[in-house]
User: Fold this.
Amino acid sequence: MVFSPFAPDFALTATQHQGWPGLIRQYRQFLPVTEATPIVTLHEGNTPLIPVPTVAAEIGRKVQVYVKYDGLNPTGSFKDRGMTMAISKAKEAGDHAVICASTGNTSAAAAAYACRGGMKAYVLIPDGYVALGKLAQALLYGAEVIAIRGNFDDCFSLVRQLADHYPVTLVNSLNPYRLQGQKTAAFEVVDALGDAPDWLCIPMGNAGNISAYWMGFCEYQEQGKSQRLPKMMGFQAAGSAPLVTGELCRDPQTVATAIRIGNPANWEKAIAVREASQGQFNAVSDGEILAAYRHLAGKEGIFCEPASAASVAGLLKCKDQVPDGATVVCVLTGNGLKDPDSAIANSDNQAHTGVANHLETVAHLMGMA
Ligand code: AN7
Assistant:
């Protein structure tokens, strides 16, 4: 029963498990867990760092570019890293219900991990602005899904009040365990490269992830696991860019609905990260986001969601500033399957539909007859 809060037979399977044990067990010495913490896991983390030579070629100067493909987590986004921690600690505290506001991915992760931990999840989402796959997940994992006539910021304000007044635990990134879990992505990047990259390019919504990565890079350096710290390059969608303009955005609009956030919860933290890392925040247009989205899928075979492509769009926008021979990591925060509508609407490729069940007709369409 060392590893598992569950039945003895489950503990047996868990201890015999030879694969990746999930990020809490992998990095437990760096995380606020004890023997008393029941670990609620879907074996998240250990996502690949994939070279993207066609992106590097657009920059030139022997730059090496990788993507950290966090869309390969169990629910398809980086949110699983934070949620395994937040839900494990909620279970340790004896909580029965959790709540979050979400542009979609947090709700999917909260729903999945709450289910796994035997808790109820309540999720508030902006009505009409959550990608189809994310909504499907929250429903099937069994969350109570409440779609509000308002944007993410309205939902977030409501859940903070609800968590203050009712017996539900907040699992948005104000919950400190969320960022603790998410910092492990930085550990994995350093473990894969042998050191921190020169630049870390990352999309920003509430700016929890950029804060978590920075914490991870700093802790790993303090432990002697890396020699240097990266410049943190944060990117927002131009129609939803409060951290770039320095002003609240009252009516955020972007195709990248995951980062359609006008009043980021981690605003001060993000500014501190930018200063400490000598990084930069910049805006990228929806057109630039979608061009990077199509580039990754069509030239590299990597399908991410639009918000994630903001990291690559941002790198390409700032390419003249990349130092010669630099190593750059772009974080791909979510899987492309989350948002099939955006993919179909923004592809320059089209299916041949309604084609006759006929050999020569198909061969002709293939350009071979
Ligand atoms: C794919 O799910 O805020 O800067 O409610 O889903 O840490 O907020 C999602 C954010 C980037 C931004 N990429 O991360 C939510 C939510 C994807 C995302 C972000 C989100 P933060």
User: Anything to note?
Assistant: The beta strands are 49-51, 64-69, 97-101, 120-126, 144-148, 169-170, 199-203, 231-237, 280-284, 327-332. DSSP finds 16 helices and ten strands in the chain. The mean pLDDT is 96.
